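Working notes for the structural subgroup meeting. M.R. asked for a predicted model of this chain before we commit to crystallization trials. I am recording the input and output together here so anyone reviewing the notebook later can reproduce the run.

Input as submitted:
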Amino acid sequence: MSTGAAEEVTLAKAGSTERAPDAGSQSRTAGSVRTEDSPVRRLVPRRRLGLGRPVPYGWALGPLLLLAVWAAGSATGLIDARNLSAPWTVVTTAGDLIENGRLQSNLVTSAQRAALGLLFGVAGGLLLALVSGLSRIAEGLIDGPVQIKRAIPSLALIPLLILWFGIGESMKVITIALGVFVPVYIHTHNGLRTIDNRYVELAETVRLSRTAFLRHVVLPGALPGFLLGMRFAVTGAWLALVVVEQVNATSGIGYMMELARTYGQTDVIIVGLVVYGLLGLLSDALVRLVERRTLSWRRTLAG
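Returned structure, recorded in token form:
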């Protein structure tokens, strides 16, 4: 090979060697430019939808807020003590009623009436709902009268019940039971009719007996509706009790309030209202506790 040809080959290799780093640097530069020009993705924590974590003693927040507003209004004079006694006055009066035993004796009487009315009302509503929910013929016979009763307030029946049963304990318990059985019937019947039909088909496939079908399919399926009806029922029992105890009663929280109205004792009336409110709140909390324990298998928004 001649000297000139050898020099040309050497220069060609050197040129290619020099151009290679330039190409790599250009590609790296372009890559860095693309990286700088492209938007930077930031890792934003995903926000969970729902009600959030349970608040300890969250059920008491509303009553405590009402108590704070009541106390502030009484302390500043915005609330006239003749119309609404101050909280500290009510507490003092409650202490006096407890000391002389009036509050306990009247509370026991009221609780007995409410418990009996709740027992008979829940039993009647549950039985009618099961019969009506499992039979088309029974539904035609039962559902219509129940809907008529639903449109008539139980308290509107008091004059008729007095004529039928007098003014004794029977009338009071029956009035409470009538106010209880309608919500139990309505929600239990709805729970029965909303059972997934696939469970019924599965029960037929595995050849469950009628008793096993009621035990393993019907009752668990109706339980959510029944417990929802119970929440309305316990509230309805106390609402009916407030009225019936003011109809020629000789004992009970309502009788104590009616007697206080005669003598203008606002603080005693407020004590009775607070007792009714606490009884209703505790009853509802008890039903909700049973609902959470028995329906813990459900995955719902409430947790």
